């Protein structure tokens, strides 16, 4: 098992509650902190990412803007259903700059991770980048 960045693990965004054509969900995983996914208002907002294979995730790092409260859930099946709670975090407001937060997932095995933004500091929130400390479980 090699420690990898989330982009090298075949990551895809498979669900997003909002979709703005100028700021699509795929921007969260393109590795560029200047691009982003933006909500279209209202809470909760959520998105689900899928790994190419079962993956052990020790933590995720999220670069975001105006996110106040975030929950992370995991799934270990082939389809994105029946999620289990893993962690939640209250993020601090950072006026005029990105919020960078590392969230420990304690070595959770997952095929999918669901991120639920339950509240924000404004009507609209943005996620610029997701990365992870993760290891593929397939040899």
UniProtKB/TrEMBL annotation:
Q: Which residues form the F5/8 type C domain?
A: 16-121
* Gene Ontology biological process terms in this record: intraciliary transport
SUPFAM superfamilies in alphabetical order? Galactose-binding domain-like (SSF49785)
Q: Name one GO cellular component term.
A: cilium
Q: Which Pfam families match?
A: F5_F8_type_C
Gene3D superfamilies per the UniProt record, alphabetical: Galactose-binding domain-like
Q: What is this protein called?
A: Heat shock protein, alpha-crystallin-related, b11
């Amino acid at each position: 098992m090699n420690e990898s960045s989330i982009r090298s693990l075949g990551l895809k965004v498979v669900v997003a509650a909002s979709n703005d054509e100028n700021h699509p969900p795929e921007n969260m995983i393109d590795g560029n902190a200047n691009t982003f996914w933006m909500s279209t208002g209202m809470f909760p907002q959520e998105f689900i990412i899928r790994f190419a294979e079962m993956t052990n995730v020790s933590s995720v790092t999220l670069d975001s803007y105006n996110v106040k409260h975030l929950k992370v859930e995991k799934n270990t099946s082939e389809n994105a259903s029946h999620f289990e709670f893993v962690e939640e975090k209250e993020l601090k407001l950072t006026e005029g700059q990105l919020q960078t937060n590392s969230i420990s997932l304690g070595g959770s095995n997952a095929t999918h991770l669901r991120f639920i933004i339950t509240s924000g500091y404004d009507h609209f929130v943005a996620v610029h980048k997701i990365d992870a400390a993760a290891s593929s479980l397939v040899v």
